[in-house]
Specification:
By secondary structure, the chain is an alpha/beta fold. It has two domains: 163 residues, Bordetella uptake gene, domain 1 (D-Maltodextrin-Binding Protein, domain 2, 3-Layer(aba) Sandwich), CATH 3.40.190.150; 98 residues, Periplasmic binding protein-like II (D-Maltodextrin-Binding Protein, domain 2, 3-Layer(aba) Sandwich), CATH 3.40.190. It is 43% helix and 19% strand. The strands form two sheets. The chain has a six-stranded mixed sheet, sandwiched between helices. Strand 1, helix 2 and strand 2 form a beta-alpha-beta unit. The longest helix has 22 residues. The chain is globular, with a radius of gyration of 22 Å. It starts with a helix and ends in a 5-residue tail after the last helix. The relative contact order is 0.18.
Length: 322
């Protein structure tokens, strides 16, 4: 071995050793957790809960960075392009990881450019309508839409979000024409829904939970295959006449590609530990959320399997983004 070769070999060994040592002490500084939706939205709520518990456990600040716009794509891109040291992570939804790659030309690949750590939560969307709408259930709503094609409107949290996809799938299944009005997040759409300027919306349960309980909006159905624990009297869309209809909303913790395995393992184990805490589970349940905590390999497998599934659904439904 030449002197230059020895020097290069030594430098590489030193860098590997330093990297391993730095990861042993991870985290050594504040963590930035990127969220693609505004404060008060469901992903923001999940991120702040997770960030709070991580910060308390590790005694290091977790800073929530709300990077809105482009249906969450800007936030996902920032995570994908961040330094792979574990100090920039993303709480990303299936919209950013599964749906958007089938709708947009993106600057990131959810499989190649991101490291899956764990799915964190899952929840149903809820179909809600303004109280002036005559329909009391999904079938009555579809009948109303069929006799007034193009007149009814549905709000969404943005083109390509699960709230958009749920409505498009129902339109396709029922063969009705309802106009899409996209907003920059579900919370931005709620005032117009309350004011009757839009007819309906599929929303995360947590975003409309108090409004439904107070009678300000009427719930017609949930998009999971089982009823929501917070609203056991509200039927599923499947029970309302559309077999197999399911558009749940989940969020997962990811980092850029190339995260050190030790960091991935530490983040995953800590996430699972926190999701097992009764206090956190209760807080999530109050928001209509259920913890997941699967492994990095399981999470990565979900992404790989769901991408082609949604590609077929989107193509068959003829869904377009504005």
């Amino acid at each position: 071995m030449t002197d230059i070769s020895r020097l290069i070999f030594g430098l590489v060994a030193l860098l590997i050793a330093e990297n391993a040592a730095s990861q042993t002490h991870y985290p050594a500084k504040p963590i930035r957790l990127v969220v693609g939706f505004p404060p008060g939205s469901q992903p923001d709520i999940v991120a702040r809960l997770l960030g709070q518990y991580l910060a308390e456990s590790w005694e290091k600040p977790v800073l929530i960075d709300n990077v809105t716009g482009a249906a969450g794509n800007i936030a996902a891109e920032r995570v994908a392009k961040a330094t792979a040291d574990g100090y920039t992570l993303g709480l990303l939804s299936q919209s950013q990881l599964i749906i958007n790659p089938n709708l947009y030309k993106l600057a990131y690949d959810p499989v190649k450019n991101l490291t899956a750590i764990s799915q964190v939560t899952t929840s149903a969307n809820m179909l809600v309508v303004h109280n002036a709408v005559a329909a009391k259930n999904v079938q009555e709503l579809i009948k109303l839409a069929s006799v007034r094609p193009g007149e009814l409107t549905f709000a969404s949290g943005g083109s390509g979000t699960s709230t958009h996809m749920a409505a498009e799938l129902l339109k396709s299944a029922a063969g009705v024409d309802i106009r899409h009005i996209p907003y920059k997040g579900v919370t931005a759409a709620i005032p117009d829904l309350l004011g009757g300027r839009v007819t309906m919306m599929f929303s995360p349960v947590s975003s409309v939970l108090p409004l439904v309980r107070e009678g300000k909006l009427r719930a017609l159905a949930v998009t999971s295959l089982r009823r929501a624990a917070t609203f056991p009297d509200v039927p599923t869309v499947e029970e309302s006449g559309y077999p197999g209809f399911e558009v749940t909303l989940w969020f997962g913790l990811l980092g850029p590609a190339g995260l050190p395995p030790a960091t991935v393992r530490k983040l995953h184990l800590e996430t699972v530990k926190l999701l097992s805490l009764r206090d956190l589970r209760t807080k999530l349940a109050d928001q209509g959320l259920e913890g997941i905590g699967n492994s990095p390999a399981e999470f990565a497998a979900v992404i790989r399997s769901e991408l082609p599934k949604w590609a077929k659904v989107i193509k068959a439904s003829g869904i377009k983004v504005e």
